[in-house]
Write a structure and sequence with these properties.
single chain; mainly beta; 181 residues; Jelly Rolls; 13 strands; disordered N terminus
Length: 181
């Protein structure tokens, strides 16, 4: 049994060179690589399933009411899931998209792309009349002016995804996508 941790550690320490897709659109920079910067990354996404409520008393569940899986509040008040997102240093943020299940007209969905100094870089909202039995895709290209360039030397980035105990599984975030250039 002592051999397994040694083999695992050895496999994790391998350095792999970056891989480039044939269409020259995606570059994967492996861990332990000396490469840095935005490369040709176009989109970075995170799922609400990785989100943690800001208030640890909020119980959450998982639903697929709209066909896509997401996390919702089982009870309690309006709250946010916090979902870290790793953006490539030096990239320019040009868009923010939220996928939200919203089949209630009593509550609105909301997602915010945030920086660790609590600057709101982009915001997405759903409105009551937009209710749907399928996942809504809302996109904004309005990024807070002067904050478009990712600076990992000073900041980290995360997404706030609204959940509401009053709405329950009728309103939940699915995922967020940051578009870069």
């Amino acid at each position: 049994m002592r051999l397994f941790p040694l083999l695992l550690a050895a496999s994790l320490s391998l350095v792999v060179s970056p891989v480039q897709a044939q269409d020259n659109k995606v570059v994967v920079i492996p861990l332990n690589s000396v490469s840095s910067g935005p490369g040709d990354w176009k989109h970075v996404s995170v799922s609400s399933l990785g989100g943690i409520p800001r208030n640890s008393d909020i119980r959450t569940g998982v639903s697929e009411n709209c066909g896509d899986i997401g996390r919702y509040a089982e009870e309690g008040v309006f709250e946010y899931l916090t979902v870290p997102i790793q953006l490539p240093d030096g990239a320019t943020i040009i868009g923010f998209t939220g996928l939200i299940c919203d089949n209630t007209d009593l509550h609105a969905g909301k997602m915010m792309l945030m920086r660790s100094d609590f600057i709101e870089l982009a915001i997405i909202n759903t409105n009551g009349p937009e209710t749907s039995s399928t996942t809504l895709s809302k996109t904004t290209s309005v990024i807070k002016e002067g904050y478009e360039v990712v600076d990992n030397s000073k900041y980290s980035y995360f997404v706030y995804m609204a959940i509401s105990g009053a709405a329950g599984s009728a309103l939940y975030p699915v995922s967020a996508i940051v578009t870069l250039q």
